[in-house]
Amino acid sequence: MARYRIAWLPGDGIGVEVMAAARIVLDALGLDAEYVPGDIGWEFWRKEGEAFPQRTIDLLKGVNAALFGAITSKPAKAAEEELSPALKGKGIAYRSPIVRMRQLFDLYGCLRPCKAYPGNPLNYKEGIDLVVFRENTEDLYAGVEFSPVPQELRDLLLRLSRPFAAFKDTPLDQYAISCKVNTRKGSERIARAAFEFASKAGRRKVTIVHKANVVRASDGLFLDAAREAARQYPGIAVDEANIDALCMWLLRNPFNYDVILAPNLYGDIISDLCAQMVGGLGLGCSGNIGEKLAVFEPTHGSAPRHAGRNECNPLATILAARMMLDWLGEKEKAARVEKAVAEVIREGRVRTYDMGGKNSTTEMGEAVAAKL
Ligand SMILES: NC(=O)c1ccc[n+]([C@@H]2O[C@H](COP(=O)([O-])OP(=O)(O)OC[C@H]3O[C@@H](n4cnc5c(N)ncnc54)[C@H](O)[C@@H]3O)[C@@H](O)[C@H]2O)c1
């Protein structure tokens, strides 16, 4: 029996191609693993009315980790239209497999390393090396939403919240409510994960991101929990920044930052900003980390325009595989993959279109594998 059981979830579009390239690297590395394919994505939504079938959920219950490519998703109406005729009109609603996966397996931390590998023509500045810790299951993404607003909820809010009086004359179907739900437990554990990482990885500072001056209740709680975690790590410097100001300062001087800790929505935004500074979608990777399972993925989607052309950059997926190796405790193998990626980028002989080259997805995978 292999040492690791890894769920292999290519998904849709270029997800299939970038995962195949990552596999070339993992195979060359000789990881003692069994890769178990899992069904996920648009094809399963259309045929079965479920983009994340129960059999894939069951598979994830019995693996050490998962590597995930990308999926296609569409707004509710378009999704309904593409269902197979037998499933249409049955009230089946599309649910995002990624959001469900995070919630079902309590993958509470989203870890996004953003490193400018020397020589990458897409680097905003050389030397950027940031890590974003984003809370992954709560906040505005908790899914507690109302549109139209139920009368009961409106009556209750009118009774409990003075600012809500501003909406008392708006018809129920003319506004929507999305609840930002942050818990102390959820905030504490992501904060602890960020400080623990900083202390183990020899990082100097954690920046806590919030907007607690305006969003007093939920961001106030997050900030309070993060400050509490900071007190447990006196060796790590701490600062705090409002989300809006941080976006500006990050661009002005990314070297002022090191580890960035944020609730879900702000973390989502900052992660993309940071990813763009170090090469964009072709290089951005992330880990969705829980107590029992971790799922690693490139941050890009299925890029339908490029699907089937073997032209997209697989480095994001290869770097996601590196994160997975690291998380499994395969530190030496993880370091080899990173070194190989860095060498291929520095030499600049093999580049996909986004980096200004003409090489294929497969050739990029092979180039990294050859450096191992
Ligand atoms: N995690 C996910 O699976 C995920 C994330 C984002 C979007 N999506 C879904 O993917 C589909 C397409 O969405 P989109 O077009 O907005 O975003 P996308 O990330 O799929 O692609 C946007 C553009 O970025 C570039 N790009 C993306 N990945 C690249 C790579 N590896 N190498 C080079 N260039 C790359 C391409 O120019 C592409 O057209 C939608 O159905 C969307 O819902 C899925």
Outline the structure in words.
This protein is of the alpha/beta class and 372 residues long. Helices cover 42% and strands 17% of the residues. It is built from 13 helices and twelve strands. It has helices spanning 14-29, 42-48, 54-61, 76-82, 97-104, 151-160, 184-200, 216-231, 243-252, 264-277, 315-328, 331-347, 361-371; strands at residues 4-11, 33-37, 65-70, 109-115, 129-135, 145-146, 177-178, 205-210, 237-242, 259-262, 285-289, 294-298. The chain is globular. Bound molecules: nicotinamide-adenine-dinucleotide (NAD). Nicotinamide-adenine-dinucleotide (NAD) binds next to loops.
How would the global form be characterised?
Answer: globular
Number of helical stretches of at least 4 residues: 13
In whole angstroms, how far apart are the ends?
25 Å
Q: Which class of secondary structure composition applies to the elements?
A: alpha/beta
Beta-strand fraction estimate: 15-25%
Q: Main traits of this protein?
A:
372 residues; two-stranded antiparallel sheet; 17% strand; globular; binds nicotinamide-adenine-dinucleotide
